Amino acid sequence: MAARADVRTAAAGDAGSGSTDLPAGEAAEPAAAPWPAVHAGTPATAGARLEVVRTYPLPYGEVWSAVTEPERLGRWFADVTGHLRVGGTWNATFPQGSASGVVAECEPAARIVTSWRWAHEPAGTAPGRLTVTVEPEADATRLLLVHESVTGNATGQAAGWYAHLAGLAPHLRGKDPGGADWEAEFARALGVLRAPGAGGSRVF
After folding, report:
1. Domain assignment present for 24
2. How confident is the model at residue 11 (pLDDT cuts 50, 70, 90)?
3. What pLDDT was estimated at residue 66?
4. What CATH number does the domain containing 195 carry?
5. Distance CA 32, CA 28 (A)
6. Is a pLDDT exceeding 70 seen at residue 98?
7. Does 12 fall in a domain?
């Protein structure tokens, strides 16, 4: 199984993210993707809202399969166990931690909504809400990931999600994303988020 980095590491801090230069060799995706967005939380939302959008040159059914089937998730994201259906519980294990949740909504081949809670969070911490939507766009598929009620280092978590969805691209091409690629994509996104207005970043 390919080495994968951990979004939880990004949640803990940005230290050690390295250079924001593009990695040598093949990029994670041929065309540049929109940078992640971080929307500041309000008293009503009790946490930040993160958005990441990517477009993949494949049918939406193929992308849906890759983001909802535990066996495939294990090849590019994390070791996932449980049931990704309405009312189902799941657990995702990363090299340095884990997350879990309960699926609230699931529209096959279109949209899934689940709670998201890191195992390291203090008892009583309200879970976040993760929504993944896929939809056809010309000859490709547009994927929108929205993570709401995010506490801790929202910028680092946004960069982490960006890097994971970058890793989905080689998986969809039949390749295994590597940990080094994740680190490079994470550093790239983090650099943009730290410099509002650069490279199409959207930081609010």
Report:
1. no
2. low
3. 97
4. 3.30.530.20
5. 9
6. yes
7. no
